[in-house]
Design brief:
- The protein is of the alpha+beta class and 110 residues long.
- The protein is built from two helices and three strands.
- It has a three-stranded mixed beta sheet, with helices on one face.
- The longest helix is centred in the C-terminal third of the chain and has 22 residues.
- The protein is elongated, with a radius of gyration of 20 Å.
- The two termini are 35 Å apart.
Length: 110
């Protein structure tokens, strides 16, 4: 019987069409000392909407402007003390906003 259940599950997945979802505003927590080519951080004020190049291509995935928050350090040191404390503060705030939005939309496992 287990085999029949697996076949039924596979067939139900074939016809599955995910519902359209609204892509939320995107926020990038970006290393202030980053040296990525083609995305000059001098164009980004911390906590500001990013010009397209500073958004690193994420602007294609949302109708809203991409929000860039610069955090201290480079790609490696941003996750080390003391910089990780600043990163954690911004990440926690993002997660709380997302959780609040999910609860307002009636998502029960937020």
């Amino acid at each position: 019987i287990r085999g029949l259940i697996n076949v039924w599950r596979a067939h139900s997945q074939i016809r599955y069409e995910p519902r359209q979802i609204a892509i939320p505003r995107i926020k990038i927590l970006r290393a202030r000392d980053s040296r990525l080519p083609g995305a000059e951080l001098s164009d980004v004020a911390s906590g500001a909407d990013a010009p397209n190049d500073a958004a690193l291509g994420w602007d294609k995935f949302s109708a809203e402007p991409v929000h860039v928050q610069l955090v201290p350090g480079d790609h490696i040191t941003m996750v080390a003390e003391p910089n990780v404390q600043v990163l954690a503060k911004h990440l926690s705030a993002c997660l709380e906003r997302a959780r609040g939005a999910a609860l307002r939309q009636g998502v029960t496992n937020a």
